[in-house]
Structures are given as structure tokens and as C-alpha cells.
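Human: I would love a firmer grasp of how sequence relates to backbone shape in proteins. Take your time, and here it is.
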Amino acid sequence: MQKLKKFFSSSFVWLVMLFFYLPIFYVMVFSFNESKSLTRFTGFSLKWYQKMFETRTIREAIYYTVVIAVLATVISTVIGTVTAIGLSKSKKILRDVVLQVNDIPMMNPDIVTAIGFMLLFSSLNLEKGFWTILLSHIVFCIPYVILSVMPRLRQLDDNLAEAALDLGCTPIQALTMVIIPQLKSAIISGALIAFTMSFDDFVISFFTSGPGISTIAIYVYSSIKRINPTINALSTIIVLIVTVVLIVVNVVPMIKERKKRVAQ
């Protein structure tokens, strides 16, 4: 009976893994297909990658997506981290109210948030384009950073900052040299979540974009009604980049930790 349960649990795990990763593998394989067919592999070719880099709209979509994601990540990480540190030193009532409000953008359906941004920019007579997308991404990324940093702040000793001040640090030095290094892992986690949320966002970007501004998600949506193998090539490159980033983020700290243990 125990072996049967183990067999079914293992089978279930493998089925879930196949469900998640088989479509990605399928896309990657057919990105090297010589023909446009998405069901029959006719031969190995890199022409769809070449065509992808030769297509101006794809290059622009990649450019806008990366620039917006990087800027939104950096700005939201700074604002979210500073806000979390400030809330940790605030009164409980204020902290609870702000954290409850902070949860609203994450609990709201994306379509509601997107329509809200669209109506806001329209009421302010702001021309929708690069800056409206960037502002929207910053706003909906900040809550994820705060949510990542706050638990780590609760684990810190409340007297840590005061001890640094007593030892001669200025408030800025206490923040940058004592508090933030203790929050490094939480800040990196929040930044990665913010980058991911911004990079693959479609609904909010679609409602806040303007003429001539297209992200990867918007480009894929506009091309989905016709066979376009360059999307497979684009998706493959994105998967590879994300995989490399995740490996670096997870492996580098492990290597540093191992070196510290060896040195000790």
C-alpha cells in the first residue's frame, strides 16, 4: 500500500512537471523548424531567429519591454524598500492601514487596475505611451517589494539601528551600512518579483500604451491570429535569459556561502 501511494504521488508530480514544461519545450523545438508548420518538424534552421532580429517591430518591442522592466524594477525596489523600513518604525495603526492598502493592487484583477490607470491618465489629459506604461508598472510593482521586505524587517533586532547610531553612524550610514545589508536577500527577491511582473505584463501595458509603443506581450497578442514562428524564437530567447538569471541568482550566493565555510 505504501509503495502504491509513493507510485501515485511520484506519477502526479511528473504529470504536473510535464503539464508546465512540455509546452515550453515544444515552443523551443519548433523555434528551430525550417517551415512555418507548428505541428510537423521539417528540418533544423535558424532563419526564424534571423528574421526576428531583422524585424523592426520585434526589436522595438524587446527594447521597450526591457527598458520599462529595468526602470520599473529599480524605482519600485527603492521606493518599496524605503517605505517598508519607514513602516517598520511607524505606529501599528498606520502600519496596518498602509499594509492593507498595499494588498489591494495585488488582490485586484489586472483588468480592474488597468482600466483604473487608463481612466486616470485620460482624466489628467496625459498622452498614453512610454511614460504612462512605466508609471503604471512602478505602481503595481511597489506592493510586491514591500511584501518581500517586510517579513525580513520583522526578524531584525529593533535596537540594531540605535546601536549603529550610538557607535557614531549618521542616520544615512545606519540605513545604508547596517539595515540594508541585512535586507539584501529580501530586496533581491522583491526586485526579481517586480522585474518578472513588469516583464510579462500584458493587460496593464495594453490599456496604458499608446501609438507606436509595444511591449513583447502586446506584440505577441497582436500576432497570435496568424502563424508567426518568430514568436517561438522570441519565446525561446526569453526562457533562456530567465533561466540564466535564475541560475546566477541562486548559484552565486551558494558558491559564496561555500567559500566562506571553507575559509572558516
